[in-house]
Amino acid sequence: MKVLLIEDDMTLGPGLKTGLEKAGFFTEWTTSLEAAEVMLDHASFDALLLDLSLPDGDGMSLLKRLRRARQAIPIMVVTARSHREARIEGLDEGADDYVTKPYDLDELVARLRAVVRRSFGQSSDRLRFGAFELDIKGRVVTRESIRIPLKGREIRVLSILAQRAGRWVSKADIENTIYEDGKGIESNTVETAVYALRKKLGLGAIITARGLGYMVSR
What we know:
- By secondary structure, the protein is of the alpha/beta class.
- Helices cover 40% and strands 22% of the residues.
- It has a 5-stranded parallel sheet, with helices on both faces. The chain has a 4-stranded antiparallel sheet with strand order 8-9-10-11, with helices on one face.
- One of its GO terms (biological process) is regulation of DNA-templated transcription.
């Protein structure tokens, strides 16, 4: 899962980015609204963590703009504004959750997982697709309770497909999720991961269609 963190605190930001990545979220971090707008226009994210007090404006303006543009990306407000009126405004304007600083990192991560799950219509961190089960939190794949060892990039690609089981996912969408700012993209990364996954899960586990991309069955 790929998330965008908008946080201008140069002490808090790196620690939160590290914590999110340890929890399995591929995280891009920016400190301004202007940069966030550019990143949202050029990449896809599974969720947005939004501070409100930013150097070039109020994060609430971005929240309002996205919702008025009918952007459905899950948004979690993470801010020092703890008064009741601010919480009500944030939720009424379309925030999926509102977390005040200081926060417990484990709780914030759990809330983020819940927000992302809801956006995919899921009720659990355990995703079933075909004959398999993927534990997103534990990053483990099993078939009939037998664990199938996968490497990090294989897990990332499979997670993207499993969260969208029954739907086509393009190669570009996968690349945009597993790479930061499109940097370091290798032309055969996705194909290599899919090839390895088919060897471990079976040839029919992932299907391909020219012009559409990849898909796993529900």
